[in-house]
Amino acid sequence: MLVLIGVAWLCVLSWRRSAHRGRTAVLESLRFIITLLVVMLLWQPEWRTVLNPTSKPKIAILWDDSRSMNTLDAALPAEIAEEGKAGTIVSRADWVKRVLDSALWEPLRMGGANDLSIRSFATPAKEGLSGSDLNAPLSELLENENNLRAVVMLSDGDFNMGPPPVAAAQKYRIRGVPVFTIPVGSGKRLPDLDLLTVTAPTYGIVGENVQIPFTIRSSLDRQVRTIVRLRDESGRERTKNIILAPNVENYDSILWKLEKEGTTKLTLSIPVEDGELIASNNTHDFTISGKPERIRVLVIETLPRWEYRFLRNALSRDPGVELSCLLLRPELGAGDGADYIEKFPETLDALSKFDVVILGDIGIGENQLTEEQVKQIRGLVENQASGVVFLPGPQGNQMSLTKSALSDLLPVSLDEKNPEGLSETVATSLNLTSEGRASLLMMLGESEEENPEIWRRLPGFYWHAPVLRAKAGTEVLAVHPNRRGAYGPTPLIVTKAAGSGKVLFMGIDSAWRWRRGVEDLYHYRFWGQVARWMSYQRNMAAGQRVRMFFTPERPLPGATVNLNANAFDPNGAPLKEGAVSVDITSPGGEVRRIELQKNESDWGAYSGRFKIDMPGEWKLRAITAVSPDIPTETKIMVQGVDVEKIGQPARFEVLEEISRVTRARSVLPQQLADLISEIDALPEPKPLENRIPLWSHWATLVVLVTLLGLFWAGRKLNGAF
What we know:
Layout: H1 2-17, H2 21-42, E1 46-51, E2 58-64, E3 72-75, E4 89-91, H3 92-101, H4 106-109, E5 115-121, H5 135-144, E6 148-155, H6 166-175, E7 179-183, E8 193-198, E9 203-205, E10 209-218, E11 224-232, E12 237-244, E13 248-257, E14 262-269, E15 283-291, E16 295-301, H7 306-316, E17 321-329, E18 333-334, H8 348-351, E19 356-359, H9 371-384, E20 387-390, E21 412-414, E22 422-428, E23 431-432, H10 434-438, H11 451-457, E24 461-464, E25 467-470, E26 475-485, E27 488-498, E28 501-506, H12 521-535, E29 541-542, E30 546-551, E31 560-567, E32 580-585, E33 591-595, E34 597-598, E35 605-611, E36 616-624, E37 632-638, H13 652-661, H14 672-680, E38 688-693, H15 698-720
Parallel strand pairs: 2-5, 2-6, 6-7, 9-15, 16-17, 16-19, 19-20, 20-28
Antiparallel strand pairs: 1-38, 3-4, 8-10, 10-13, 11-12, 11-14, 14-15, 17-18, 21-25, 22-24, 23-26, 26-27, 27-28, 29-30, 30-31, 31-35, 32-33, 32-36, 34-35, 36-37
Helix pairs in contact: 1-2, 2-15, 5-6, 6-13
């Protein structure tokens, strides 16, 4: 008020002193009006309208029609059950149907005092993802109805889509509309064995084993001995005996040997146990492709020690491996003969063809590797998804790599005070860790049961690298059985991921001794598995101009796929300039194109991402701007997944929170009769109020700016004439 009085006094003084009192009176009046408007806006005025309902009060009944409502765990209450059948267990959907069809709701209709509306939500879609969204039906109902008296929701409380329903419940509280919830089902999980996931690789090598991990959740109250059965379309099968702990998720894997090229459909299943109520989730179908492979391996060594000689023989005799050896003998020069190259690849395109690089007892120095060559090996691993194997020896040459570009790729820390390693007086066998026992890389037997015994029988080693500890982010597969350091047992076989590629450190030089009594059996198998494990990603989709790999390999609907690619020019060198495009065809036939982004390296590495929104076969076709007529094509198989699972416990706490926020209550089945009385006693719905805050409305700002503009223009004109 003091501001208005002060402004009014100034307006009067200005008017008295003006030679043009008529025009000045208009300007000063405008000044006072603007000031008055600003002062009024500080009080935050609102425009309030009241909407009186013209229809009868409405009581809405929302019932859950999702797939989870097919769970058989709902007991019929006495109010709706037939005589002698109270407590009978029926499905949640059947329970809801009986409640809705009963005469329980008739008192609300009597006399026409209320308009009763019954509607379903979360009905499964015929195609695409189907799930439960509790927030959406509540929000839509509140937006479309202006005379709600109460809402009753019958549901198991399970939601897997949309925001939490408490957001909608808060809007109901503001409107003063109570939401009564009726929980349906049991809060305890049904006795069941559920084959949750099967994470098989997308492809494997013909004639080789692939490892197929799976997860089984047991909600039985006892330990179960069962058989996992893996079968193909022809009836060929492999089984594995497992023990499932009660009320936990059990992780395991099974081996499968691919015998033909092309796609094979496999079925993983477990038998139905006594007391198990749901049989439909005991089976999982998936596909895996078998293909022959040509893996290019480069072995670099200084002296032809025994480990090198037998490694060279193992890889050169492997029909799936194309071997190149670089033997840098200090006094005799480079080795020559079959499988030998005279010098390190001089160009990136010559080096980029190798899937695996094995570094023996070699480092940086005269007649060995240069700093630039070491950087190129690192770039090959990080940008082109190749693998590198560190295979140190008693000369200690690899110690120089700890201060090179390969330092970060080494998965272990080495003892610089003892570069030549440690010797053993007696043969010592490796101890597999829990990760090693589960790794396909360490699988030397035909089954997981015989594999630990094979490793126990293998001839031991007499020398090992001076390893202090494994670095963070690595996986230790085998350790020394006797030697320990400050960080535990000495790790001797360690793996890690490096950029797009993989790294293996093998701290012994006696794998060749595994041939004793069995010839090539275990030694050849181990190094063949190493080569295939390291080259797996590079060969997911390899073409002349583009090589693609992606994660996850088996995405679920709704997942985002990270797509990586390496592009090459017509000469086979990594593409330095130019775009790489990928045409993505969905199972429904829709085609869209994404442009991959190039990284800053010289390795022709590109990356991008896209979202999977439906199950089925997704086709990818990659081309470069340089060679658009030479595409690389691959497929991604997306298994259908039900986010709505039968047999899950009902989530009563979700429904209780909705009712608590809206100042209602969650009603148990035996309290249904009381619910009707409570709803009938509710007051009439309040008229809807609509409040528009004038102080923050856009029209207010327009008016204020317009008045200020008129005042400014008037001041200029008043002074000019």
